[in-house]
Design goal:
single chain; 4-stranded antiparallel β-sheet; about 140 residues; about 20% helix; Immunoglobulin-like; 9 strands
């Protein structure tokens, strides 16, 4: 046998075994049922843009804005617990808004044919902030 013919055959057989084993490993991963997934995302529609986000009193880093900042998407929220969400607008003339996110607020949304995600939707309207009256000095 010629070495030039055997070597490509051995390389091809080795690659076939490697890629076959990798494909079999990926197929062994069990799919999670929707009830086993405990996280989801919250879509908040706002009348102002780019509000600061606090969840349960702490700043929340896992978020993004859409629609020029009018839609807030909060990622990786635990849907099994109740959360207190505070949104503070960047404009001082608007007042902050707080709302409670309950486990009953989550819905299973179909993204693709076989892809589903837990999602909650809220609509927030920021009202005008009440101005605190300055204390006037007493007249003498």
């Amino acid at each position: 046998m010629k070495p030039g013919i055997v070597l490509p055959g051995v390389v091809a057989a080795t690659l076939l075994v490697i890629f076959g084993a990798r494909a079999q490993e990926e197929g062994d991963k069990p799919e999670l049922t929707p009830e086993q997934v405990s996280t989801g995302e919250v879509h908040v529609t706002m009348n102002s843009d780019y509000a600061r986000v606090r969840v349960d009193g702490a700043a929340w880093e896992e978020h993004a804005f859409e629609d020029n900042g009018k839609t807030l998407v909060i990622h990786r929220m635990d849907r099994t617990d109740e959360h207190q969400v505070t949104l503070t607008p960047v404009y001082p003339e608007l007042a902050p808004v707080e709302f409670t996110l309950r486990p009953a607020d989550w819905k299973l949304v179909k993204l693709e044919k076989r892809v589903k995600m837990w999602r909650a939707k809220k609509k927030v309207v920021f009202s005008k902030a009440t101005k605190a009256k300055k204390a006037r000095p007493a007249k003498k």
